[in-house]
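Dear colleagues,

As part of the handover before I leave the project, I'm documenting each prediction I ran so the next person doesn't have to rerun anything. This entry is a single chain, and its sequence is reproduced below.
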Amino acid sequence: MPSSATLALLCLLLAITSAACRKSKPPTPEAKDATAAKARAAATPIPAPADGTFAPQHAAAAMGPFQADLDGTKPEGHLRALNNALTFWLASGRPFPKDVNELAAAKLITRVPTAPPGKKFVIDPARQQIVLAP
């Protein structure tokens, strides 16, 4: 009679080999077509709107990681989100904005966050940054 260690080893070997023998089904033609359509849609550039605003898809893609900062309550997060929006604005070849409201008007950000009491968000053209000023 085999020992319990040998029996356990045989059971483990049987479990490993049976799991390795399972083959997955090849993708159906419909699944391949859906995957190809998604890849084409992702590769197709989104045209910029003619009215000078940013396409919502562009803004969402650019600001997605920073939306939490914009929605948060901390001024540091607001500045991080606003400065990233400003970077996206300048990278698109637009002239320097007059104020942060232009970023919201162009739909690059969903809204201008509320500054702490006694301060406001202003654009410092020399540093090309948005800062908190009294």
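The two ends are 87 Å apart (CA to CA). The helical segments are 4-21, 29-43, 56-63, 67-71, 75-91, 101-105.

All the best with the project,
I.
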